[in-house]
Structures are given as C-alpha cells and as structure tokens.
Amino acid sequence: MSQMLLELENVTKSYGSLDALKDVSFSVEKGEWVAIMGPSGSGKTTMMNIVGCMDKPSSGTVVLDGRDISRESPRSLTNIRRDTIGLIFQQFHLINYLTALENVMVAQYYHSLPDEAEAFEALKRVGLEERARHLPNQLSGGEQQRVCIARALINRPRLILADEPTGNLDEANEGKVLELLRELHQEGRTVIVVTHDPEVAEQARRTIVLEHGRVHEIRDNEKD
Amino acid sequence: MFIRMILGALFRQKGKMLMVALTVALGASLASAMLNVMLDVGDKVNRELKAYGANINVLPKGALLLSDLYGMEQAPDTPDMYLSEEDVAKVKTIFWAHNIVDFTPHLNTSGTINGGADAVKVTGTWYQKHLSLPTGEELETGIQRMRSWWDVSGDWISDEDTDRAMIGSALARQQGLELGDSFTLGVGTNEQTFTVSGIIEAGGDEDDQVFITLKTAQDMTDKQEKISSFEVSALTTPDNEIARRAAENPRSLSAKEHETWYCTAYVSSICYQIDEVVPEGVAKPIRQVAESEGTILEKTQLLMLLITVLSLLGAALGISNLISASVMERSSEIGLMKALGAHDVPLTWLVLLEILLVGLVGGLIGYFAGLGFAQIIGQTVFGAPIAAAPMVIPLLSVLVALVIIVGSLPSIRYLLSLRPAEVLHGR
Fold first, then answer.
1. Which residue does chain A place closest to B5, by CA atoms?
2. Residue from A97, A111, A147, A153 whose CB has the most chain B CBs within 10 Å, to mutate
3. Quick check: is A99 in a domain?
4. The predicted structure's pLDDT at residue B200
5. Angle, CA B337 vertex, CA B335 and CA B341 arms, to 5°
6. Which residues of chain B have pLDDT under 70?
7. Which residues in chain A touch residue B337, judged by CB atoms under 8 angstroms apart?
8. Same domain, yes or no: B138 and B269
9. Number of domains in chain A
10. Domain boundary residue among B251, B267, B285?
11. 8 Å CB contact of B8 and A81
C-alpha cells in the first residue's frame, strides 16, 4: 500500500494566458512535514488552493489520499476537503459573531455532529480553555490563530494545510504556533505549511521551493 | 449549532438586522394598512354611495309589462297595477337582508292645486318611518334617508302629518306658494287642504311634484294599503360574468354557479330574492346606479391593490439591497463555511432563515403599525374605524415571505457563486 498521501504530477494552472503553476510534480508521504516556499507570485497560494480542494488544476493530476481530486466535482471536492483536510489561515478567518468555542464547533457541524466537550478539549489543547467563551475581537492575534488551529484539528484530518500560519504573529506567538504544528507532526499527522519565512520552513522535513510557478528546488532539511 | 449560528448572527449583528427588520416593517405596514382598508372599503364605499339613492326598483308585474311594452309611466287604475304596502318590509327577510340599507314605497297619482287646470304629480311615501319587523328588528327608513342630496327649505314632513306637504321648487314658483302657505289638493273627487312644510330643490322631476305621506295619498285615492312601487337601496357586489348571465336568465347557470350567485350580494341575486318574497312584483336593478357603484368600488379597490403591490415592491428592493450588502460583507465568513465543508443548500437556508426570522419580527411590527395606519385612513376618509380583517394575517405572511425570498434572490445567487479560494485567498 502506498505511503503517499499527496502526489502531484505535471500540474499546471492557467489564468488566461498566465500560468500560475507550470508542470509541477512532487509528492508528500503520510506523516511528513513539508514546507512550500517561494516569493510573492511564485504560485504558493495557487498550490494551496489546489491541494486544499478549493480549486482544480488546468491539467495534470493531483492524488490525495488515493483519490484523483483533479477530476472530482465541486460537491465531491467539498466532501474530500471536509473529511481529509484541516485548514489554517494567515488571516485566521474566524466568524466574528461566534465565540471561540462556537467557531470550533462550526467545523464539527459541517463535518458530522457538534460536540461541545470535544471542541472545548481542542481549545484546551491549544491553551485557550479560559478564552473559550470569548468573541474573536476579544482575542489577540496569536489566540485567534490558536482557535484556527483548534478548528483545523477538531475533525482529526489526515492533512493539516497551513497558509502562512505565523504571518500575522509576533515572535512569542509564532513560537507557540510552531510548537503546536510540531506536536501534530509528532503525533503522525501530515503537515503542509505554505510560507515565505525560511525559519518556519526549516521546521519541516522537506522544503519545496517554487519560483515563477515551477518547482525550483526540493530541499531535505534533515540532511542539511 | 444551526440555531446558535442563527442566533449569533441575529443578536451580534443587531444594527444590520434592525435595518432589514425596519425595511420589512415599512413595507408590511403599508401592505397591512392597504389590505385592511381594501377589504373593508367595499362596505364603506358602498354605504357612502347609498347616500346617492336606491339601486333597485320594485314594480307591480302589470305596471312593468306596460312600461316595458308601451313605455307607459302612468299605470291604468287596475288592481294588478299596485303592490301591497305590507310587501315592502319583506325585503328585510331575504338572504341578503343585512345588505338592505333603506327602502321606501311610493303611491303615485295626479291631482290639481287650488282647482287649477294643470295636473300635477302627487307622490305619497314614507319619510322617516319606524318599522318593527317580525324578525324583531327595529329600523327607520324612508325617503328622507334616501334623498339626502335634496336641498329642502323648511321642514321635512313626518309620516304622521295629514295636513302638511312638501312641494318641488319649480311647482312652488309656478303656483306662487311659499313656506307656510296653504293650498288645496284635489285628487279625483277628494280634496284636502295642506300647508307647505318644505320646498324641494332636487334638480329633477321632483321639482314639479307634491309630496305627501303615504297614508294621506292612500286615503285620497281610496287605495288603502296599496303602493305603486317601492325602491330599495342595497349594498351590492360588482357584477361578474356569472352575475351578468344570471341577470339575463338565472336558469342558464349550473347548480353550483347558481349557489355561488345566490350567496353573493350581486344586484341581480338580491333582485331575485326580492322577487321570491314579493311574488306580485318585479325587482329591477337601476342599472346605471348599480354599475357606477360597482365601477367606483372596483377602481377604489384596484388603487389600494396597486399601492399594496408598489409598497411591497419597494420593500423587496430595499431588502434586496440590504441583504446583498450584508452577504457581500460576510463573503469571507461564507467562503470559510464552504471551506469547512458547507454545501450550498444548508448555507442558503442559514442566510434565508436569518432573514425570514428578521422578516417575521419586521412583519409583526409592520402588521400592527399597518392596523394603526388603517384606522387613521378609516377615520380621515370614512369617519369610521376599519375592521381588522383576519385574512390579512395569512395573506400578509405569504406576501412578506415572498418579498423576502424574492428580495434575497440576488444575494443567494451571489452566495452560491462564491468560491472559497476567491474569498479566502483572493483567487
């Protein structure tokens, strides 16, 4: 049985005459921590959208957990995303009229059944049990990002997909978030972090460097 | 969780939701006021129109035949040319008795004044007759109520007066009679002296007539308990296709159509019912009056309906703008829900239910505000309160729901077209 969770083969994504991704191929093993790096306009966000089942490639194949997601319908992609992926955003994207606890429960609601105790445990794990009943605007940036991580974890996804998870955080909070990602990796979760920060990328086992929509370099951080 | 999300959206976005509720309330209040007035205005306008006279005339069968065949207005003096006075009150026993507002009998004859050579038309009638009906109902009716537009100098006579009369203004001028003057009225071989109690300025044939009480006219013509005709003022429903066919021939209707027609206050069905209780007479609608009343009523109701539709259309536009703005503002939240696995249908329900709940509150406020507006309209225009029609509640609920759904359509289309990648990552 394949140990690969994600395999991209000759993936191209075009917007009109512009190729955001061009013939990109790489794979990610189950339980691996991979960073995708690159400057602005290198295709990181497009890559994140395709791997996160929020967009489809113009050509090429993307196999996630044994399913070719480049051929799935939008409805099916929604189901795969819900069941397989935990999303962490740079802007946190919390619902501003729901408490931290309710924001975590929203992910449960669209996945299966909301369980307040379980959602509370997820917040406890990210150190926010005291802030569970607070609204997002009553939380600091670091706390909001930890709520976002708790929400990403709640449905036990096979892949954690984080887009610039420390981009809006100070050093102290960056450390806390990276520590959480490290713990998740140690538990055997597959983690893909999209970042432009070399320090964040260095935490991963491998770094895939994109430039002008192509894979410029695949770096093994453990060897280095 | 669904309820928590809805309550969260409602109570933590009070400002926005209040605006939507107020927009719905404004539209609903106008619709509620107009619908209540529209449903009650039929009776009100009808009653106002009754001030302009009768819409049904009941003649003896023989007189009608002569009138129809030979155009004879003055019937020859034969028994089948008269109805019985006691037939008049029977109109209050028909199925649509409550719609009979006023009625009065006439005994028409001709006579001479002060022995002159010219024949003048003499009419005996009720003025303000008090009736105790077999049904137990007490009422006052007569020509004074049915000719409210007459300009009368002096006093109306009462039904007990035997020596006072009212005369038309043209006749008074011709005869040189003034208020308080006495004159001798000769009818056949009988003569009687009357005092002029009132002079009538009606702008019609009445200006050349003498009006005395029915009892006096019956005594002078030796026609005790007899009348030439009686006129009825009834509240009617504007004619439709069934009513028009029935007016031509009630037998042309199917059993079901006949039942519908009989149980609706069309002028033809009321005439039919009068014919049933007064077999010696024939009730004929005074078409011009009945049709004018119907037209005025229809136009008034159409105007109200248009205002209702326009107010709801305005509300729909307002709601549409507000909800579209709200959905656009919340596009990242909706994109996030889609990213978390929400499908289009539950998301649509979420937004729609939020708006429907806000609309419910707005609708309730609007309904009661509309009742208030209806009372203001009722008091200002008709000088009477407008009854709250229970059917407005379901009607308004459906209309408000429709307006909200139609108003939400553009934002729901936008919501369905939202792609999480676009709103979360700008691509």
1. A98
2. A97
3. yes
4. 92
5. 115
6. 12, 42-43, 46-53, 64-80, 287-293, 425-427
7. 106, 110
8. yes
9. 1
10. B285
11. no
CB contact under 8 A, A87 and B340: yes
Q: Is A110 on the interface with B (CB under 8 A)?
A: yes
**B411 and B264 share a domain?**
no
Q: How many CB pairs (< 8 A) connect A and B? A: 82
Cα distances (angstroms) measured from residue A215 to each of A26, A169, A210: 8, 28, 5
Measured in whole angstroms, how far is the alpha carbon of residue B160 from the centre of its chain?
34
Q: Is residue A4 part of a domain?
A: no
- Residue span of the structural domain in which A162 resides: 32-56+74-220
Tell me how many degrees the CA angle B402-B403-B405 measures, rounded to the nearest 5.
65
- Of the candidates B96, B91, B100, the residue with the CA atom closest to the CA atom of residue B229: B91
Say how many C-beta atoms besides its own lie within 10 A of residue A41's C-beta: 14
Q: How many folded domains does chain B comprise?
A: 2
A4-10: average pLDDT:
91
Most B CBs within 10 Å, among A15, A91, A110, to test the B interface: A110
Give the per-residue pLDDT at B427.
Answer: 52
Name the β-bridge partners of A26.
A8
Let me know the angle formed at the C-alpha of B416 by B410 and B418, rounded to the nearest 5 degrees: 105
Mutation target for A interface from B13, B332, B340, B345: give the one with most A CBs within 10 A. B340
Q: What is the dihedral of CA B136, B142, B146, B147, to 10 degrees?
A: -160
**A144, part of any domain:** yes
Distance from CA of B334 to the nearest CA of A (A): 9
**pTM (2 d.p.):** 0.61
Per-residue pLDDT reduced to its tens digit, A143-184: 998 899 899 989 889 999 998 888 877 787 788 888 888 888
For B257, phi then psi, to 5°, come to -65, -40
Q: Inspect the interface and report whether the beta carbons of A107 and B340 lie closer than 8 Å.
A: yes
Q: Are B236 and B55 in contact (CB under 8 A)?
A: yes
| Claim to verify: residue B129 and residue B222 sit in the same structural domain | yes
pLDDT in tens, B190-230: 899 999 999 998 878 889 999 999 999 999 998 899 999 99
Q: Give the tens place of pLDDT for each residue, A34-70.
A: 999 988 888 888 999 999 998 899 999 999 988 899 8
Contact yes or no for B281/B83 (Cβ under 8 A): yes
* Residue A1: per-residue pLDDT: 47
Q: Which domain holds residue B142?
A: 55-285
ipTM higher than 0.85? yes
| B:108-137 residues touching chain A, CB 8 A cutoff | none
Taking the alpha carbons at both ends of chain A, their separation in whole angstroms is 30
**Which chain A residue has its CA at the smallest distance from B427's CA?**
A46
